[in-house]
């Protein structure tokens, strides 16, 4: 009986061991099936967004599971099973299965499954009944039902397998993506299955991907700059970019689009707020102007345009309210940048710029009927200007004085029609005469002699009020021509011109005799003692007869007082017809006027044996000269002959 009991125990023991082995096998099979179900379910989740959490890698989990399984098996073989509290397998939030026994490495699935076991629990082997969860994450819940063997013996129990700590298995996404991928005609970039957004440095090139992952191309506004990505490659662009006829420039360092001024080795450019390079137009930055040419380069130096001229400095800035010099040429640029043309007044003077906008220097400038002279520094002259040929005068308004007087201090000048200061005599009216010295200064309150040694006096106003012509006195009596006053008076006048003709020569020229009339020659005998009729020759015949010798002897019959004064002021003596002692009704007589002083004529009378000269009033002269009468002849009024030359 004892042996029978022992056999029964062996039988029960063998059956229990067999049961444990079968249960372990079923559990392993159900575990694999459960993992496959979970992996298939996870594959259907959103691509690229699946997040897998693990406490350890798959490899470490497999190793740990395998070790735990071996330990449990070995313990079962060496001791008896011990009865323990049943365990329940449930689904964690991340598809976690609780199991009494870990699977070996070769039975762990690569799906995204998290298998979790309760810490430090012992459990009898359980049969698996699996079901699939309908949750959004497709987790799987499996339940084990306890298998309770019906034996009461407590001998040779096998200790329960020691349960391992809770482990998490992370399984990579199936078909993970990497690199550039075209989806629906749009390029995206994935890294380890994750879609890249924002800026990305790939193979030493910069790219950008929008929030939707689509690769950026063309102009793109980033957080702090605008850049350009190539339309073909999507790579960030650096340097110049031409689109249609428009240029842009992207920084060579970080690729940002340039706006405003861009300095480079050969010059300067400007890019507007629209990023476009400015060409053939002005730009203003702060208070500075630039002009960009047809190639986009800022202009430097002179710029001609249809309305004028501008100037840009070496720094490309437009010059305003200042001078600009190029070579030996000066320009002045106004407040709007236009070069000045014509007269320019400034606080210290006046300048003049020609039609070519160049500043005039060392020469004249004319505007309308006004003349200016611009000096070596471009400033208009004011006051006296000496030059090699004379003197000029420019008023306080810088205008050249012409046909008028100019005064500086107590000195007077007279500027002629061409602006030159007068030198010598200036006849300003018939009887108005002034004199300017070799220094162009007007004479006042003084005597002086001219080149012919005629003597003059000028009053405080600069007018000549006294003239005495140089002359030699001749006597008709001493020459034996008692009736020859006409020819002798002519000799006196001719002496002023350093000329001398003998009396016989003169009378032979006129012809004489009693067959003559005063209009055709000398009536009578110039050497005689007279006759009932006046023996004389009229002015017209005397002048015409002398033309064979001298064309400067001119008949001025009918001359007025002012006519005579005018000739005297000009240095020309007058042969005049009157009466003896300038008393009307006395003997008919011809004399010479050789001077003038304060409304008086200086008479040189040839009818004397010694020099006879005196003053008579101009009124007296006028009365007698215009009213005297030659007996027996129709006498012309106011007969006079002037000797010029």
From TrEMBL:
Specify one Pfam family: Choline_bind_3
Q: Which SUPFAM superfamilies match?
A: Cell wall binding repeat (SSF69360)
TM spans (from-to): none
Biased composition, class Low complexity, residue ranges = 53-73
Keywords from the UniProt entry = Repeat, Signal
The reply on keyword Signal is yes
Q: Give the start-end ranges of region Disordered.
A: 48-142
Q: Per the record's keyword annotation, is Signal included, yes or no?
A: yes
Q: Where is the Peptidase C39-like domain?
A: 473-607
Q: Compositional bias of type Polar residues: which residue ranges?
A: 74-120, 129-142
Q: Could you tell me which InterPro entries the record lists for this protein?
A: Cell_wall/Cho-bd_repeat (IPR018337), KxYKxGKxW (IPR022263), Peptidase_C39-like (IPR039564)
- Which PANTHER family does its entry note? LMO0724 PROTEIN, PEPTIDASE C39-LIKE DOMAIN-CONTAINING PROTEIN
Protein known as: Peptidase C39-like domain-containing protein
Q: Which organism is it from?
A: Leuconostoc carnosum (strain JB16)
């Amino acid at each position: 009986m004892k042996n029978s009991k022992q056999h029964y125990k062996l039988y029960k023991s063998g059956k229990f061991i067999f049961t444990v082995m079968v249960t372990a096998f079923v559990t392993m099979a159900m575990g694999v099936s459960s993992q496959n179900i979970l992996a298939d379910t996870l594959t259907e989740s959103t691509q690229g967004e699946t997040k897998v959490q693990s406490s350890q890698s798959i490899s470490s989990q497999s190793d740990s599971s395998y070790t735990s399984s071996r330990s449990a098996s070995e313990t079962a073989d060496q001791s008896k099973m011990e009865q323990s509290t049943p365990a329940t397998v449930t689904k964690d939030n991340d598809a976690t299965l609780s199991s009494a026994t870990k699977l070996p490495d070769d039975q762990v699935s690569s799906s995204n499954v998290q298998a979790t076991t309760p810490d430090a629990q012992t459990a009898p082997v359980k049969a698996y009944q699996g079901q699939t969860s309908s949750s959004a994450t497709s987790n799987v819940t499996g339940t084990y039902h306890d298998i309770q063997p019906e034996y009461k013996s407590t001998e040779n129990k096998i200790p329960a397998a020691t349960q391992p700590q809770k482990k998490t298995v992370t399984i990579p996404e199936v078909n993970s993506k990497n690199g550039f991928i075209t989806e629906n005609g749009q390029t995206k970039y994935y890294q380890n299955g994750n879609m890249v957004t924002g800026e990305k440095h790939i193979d030493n090139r910069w790219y950008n991907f929008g929030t939707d992952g689509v690769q950026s191309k063309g102009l793109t506004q980033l957080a702090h700059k605008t850049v350009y990505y190539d339309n073909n490659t999507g790579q960030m662009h650096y340097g110049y970019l031409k689109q249609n006829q428009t240029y842009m420039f992207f920084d060579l360092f970080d690729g940002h689009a340039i706006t405003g001024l861009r300095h480079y080795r050969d010059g300067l450019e400007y890019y507007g707020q629209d990023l476009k390079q400015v060409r053939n137009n002005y730009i203003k930055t702060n208070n500075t102007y630039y002009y960009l040419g047809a190639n986009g380069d800022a202009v430097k130096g002179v710029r001609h345009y249809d309305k004028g001229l501008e100037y840009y400095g070496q720094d490309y800035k437009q010059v305003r309210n200042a001078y600009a010099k190029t070579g030996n040429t000066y320009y002045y640029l106004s407040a709007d940048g236009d070069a000045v043309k014509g007269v320019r007044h400034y606080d210290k003077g006046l300048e003049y710029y020609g039609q070519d906008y160049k500043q005039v220097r060392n020469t004249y400038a004319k505007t309308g009927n006004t003349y200016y002279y611009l000096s070596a520094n471009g400033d208009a002259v004011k006051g006296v200007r000496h030059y090699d040929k004379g003197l000029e005068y420019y008023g306080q308004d810088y205008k050249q004085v012409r046909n008028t007087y100019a005064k500086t201090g107590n000195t007077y000048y007279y500027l002629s029609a061409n602006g030159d200061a007068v030198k010598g005599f200036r006849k300003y009216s018939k009887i108005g005469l002034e004199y300017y010295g070799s220094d162009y200064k007007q004479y006042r309150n003084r005597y002086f002699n001219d080149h012919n040694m005629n003597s003059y006096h000028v009053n405080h106003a600069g007018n000549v009020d006294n003239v005495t012509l140089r002359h030699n006195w001749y006597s008709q009596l001493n020459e034996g021509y008692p009736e020859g006053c006409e020819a002798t008076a002519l000799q006196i006048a001719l002496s002023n011109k350093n000329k001398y003709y003998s009396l016989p020569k003169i009378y032979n020229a006129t012809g004489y005799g009693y067959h003559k009339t005063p209009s055709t020659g000398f009536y009578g005998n110039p050497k005689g003692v007279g006759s009932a009729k006046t023996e004389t020759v009229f002015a017209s015949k005397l002048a015409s007869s002398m033309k064979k010798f001298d064309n400067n002897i001119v008949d001025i019959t009918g001359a007025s007082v002012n006519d005579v004064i005018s000739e005297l002021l000009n240095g020309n003596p007058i042969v005049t017809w009157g009466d003896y002692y300038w008393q009307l009704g006395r003997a008919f007589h011809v004399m010479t006027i050789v001077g003038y002083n304060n409304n008086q004529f200086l008479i040189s009378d040839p009818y004397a044996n010694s020099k006879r000269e005196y003053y008579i009033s101009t009124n007296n002269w006028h009365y007698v000269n215009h009213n005297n009468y030659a007996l027996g002849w129709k006498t012309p009024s106011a007969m006079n002959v002037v000797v010029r030359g």
